[in-house]
Specification:
Four Helix Bundle (Hemerythrin (Met), subunit A), mainly alpha, elongated
């Protein structure tokens, strides 16, 4: 899965479809996106760890970081209404996860985590479909 995500964003960045730039700039952008994706994945793993250990502070901290990352310019790999909708749905779900953790509601946090994961997969499928269409 990690390899697929990295390949996807490297392919998108180096084709110039989303960031028309020189080859060197595209390579640097691919590195930035890869680093950004790794940070998102690390926060997601931390949330899962928090759920498994009932560490509500860890859940709240890392789900809040995911919400903040979703506002970062590196998050915005596409400029389409559908991508904006998917990003907003992710943000709302990650905020629900944070709220559930702050209330020490393990079942609510677990459900929100599953929903957030589904939002991630849905968005990544969308990005791949746009990439394939543009090729």
């Amino acid at each position: 899965m990690k390899k697929i995500i990295a390949i996807l964003f490297v392919a998108v960045a180096t084709t110039g479809l989303l960031w028309p730039q020189s080859p060197r700039a595209a390579e640097e952008r691919a590195d930035d996106v890869s680093t950004f994706m790794r940070a998102k994945l690390e926060h997601s793993k931390n949330v899962l760890e928090g759920l498994a250990t009932e560490d509500f502070d860890l859940i709240a901290k890392d789900s809040q970081q995911l919400t903040l990352l979703s506002l970062d310019s590196d998050w915005q790999v596409l400029q389409t209404p559908e991508y904006a909708r998917l990003s907003l749905a992710f943000r709302k779900t990650s905020q629900t996860l944070t709220d559930s953790a702050k209330k020490k509601n393990l079942d609510g946090a677990t459900l929100a985590y599953v929903q957030m994961t589904l939002k991630c997969v849905e968005c990544h499928k969308y990005v791949r479909s746009v990439e394939m269409t543009r090729l």
